[in-house]
Specification:
8 strands; alpha/beta; 3-stranded antiparallel beta sheet; 224 residues; single chain; Rossmann fold; 10 helices; binds adenosine monophosphate
Amino acid sequence: MNPGARLIVLGKQGAGKGTQAIRLSRHYVVPHISTGDTFRAAVRSGSEFGQKAKVYLDAGDLVPDEIVVGVVSERLTHSDTMHRGFILDGFPRTVHQAESLEKILEPRPLDLVLNLEIDTEHVLSRLASRRVCSDCGANYSVTDNPPRVKGICDVCGGEVVQRDDDTESAIRRRLELYEQETAPLIAWYSDRGLLVTMDALGTPDEVTERLVSEVDRRKASAAG
Ligand code: AMP
C-alpha cells in the first residue's frame, strides 16, 4: 500500500462508519470525506443547493448520483487528498457511484474497502442513541460514547444534537435503500479484491483497533 491511505468505510446505518472514519483519518493523518456531512453543512447554510439536498435527507432518500459524484470528484482534486489519500465515508452508495469513483481515481486505485458488519437489531438501538455535532459533524452515542460535557462537542464546542433524519420513517427508508443500492457494492469490491469485512460490534476503541491492525497488516504485506 502507498504512504497515506485511500480507504472507504462501508456499512449500513448505525454500523459506526462515521465514527470509525473520523478515527482512521486522525490515525493515518488523511482527510475524512463524508458526503453526509457535506450535505448537512449545505442544509445548515440555507443555500439553494442545501434546500434541494434537505428534501432527500429528510426523506432518507439518496441524493442523485450526478450531484454526489460531482461533490466528491471536486473534493478529490484538492492537493491534500492527491498527496496523502483519504477516508471516504458514506460514498459510494451505489454501484454507479463506485464506477465513477474508479474513473476519478485513475491511475492510482483504492487501497482497501472496510465493510463494517452489523445486524439490524443492533443498528436500531445504535441509531436511537446516536448524536452528532451540529458544527463539525463529530459522532457520539449517549450510551457508548457520550461527549465529555452533555450536549457539547469535545472537538469544537458545538452543539451535540440528534440528526434531523434519525426519524423512524427515514431510518427505515435508509435501511431499505442500503439493501437495494449499497449492499451490491460488497460483491462489487470483493470481485476486485479490495473488500475486507470487519465486525462492527464492540466499543469504538475496540473497533478502531481492529480496523487499524487490518489496514497495517495489509500495508506491511503490500510493502513486502
Ligand atoms: P450519512 O451521513 O452518510 O448517513 O448520509 C446522510 C444522507 O445524505 C443520506 O441519507 C442521503 O440522503 C445523503 N447522502 C450521503 N451520501 C450519499 C451518497 N453517496 N449518495 C446519495 N446520497 C447520499
